[in-house]
Amino acid sequence: MYIRLRFFYLALSLTTLVPLTLWAAQAPPREARKAFNQGLRALEQGNFVEAASMLTQSLEHSPTWGFAYLQLAKTYQNLSADSKALEALKKALKYSPNDARVHLQLGLFYKTTGNCARALPRFQKALKLRPSLEQARFEQGLCHETTNNRKLAIERFEEIVEDNPKHLGAWAALGRLHEQAG
User: Fold this and answer.
1) Which ranges constitute the DSSP H helices of the chain?
2) Which of 60, 79, 134, 149 has its CA 20 to 30 A from that of 40?
């Protein structure tokens, strides 16, 4: 690996070497990636107990892998283990603070547990990190609707249909909100 990085340094520049070196230093070890991939397959197949086991095993090999904590949190949510899901999400946030997916998932966690007040800032942060993240905007709208802030809910849903006229969920929400307004 050192030879390859050295070659890139000579061929590309020092500015390219630094990101490549950082990536190489942060790449999870082979054992962690193998267990992670097995965990993802189990998660996709709906085998949540196996997924949790494999993802936990991957984190034993790479305890600072934020994306693995994110997947573990989703697994725990599917198992209705909310306290474990929240713990995994907090670790994902600790190790991947600039990953919009982590903020989105934390917002979804808070929303599904009935805490829109805590969910809204997470959706906002996800949108700040990735402005094109339509799901975060949609979930914001749903939270505003839930908390009876119709004006903000309508704004969010209108933004969505302006960007994506085929978004049926946003159209349905707008219909509900306008019907309620009379």
Assistant:
1) 2-11, 14-26, 30-44, 48-61, 66-78, 82-95, 100-112, 116-129, 134-146, 150-163, 168-181
2) 134
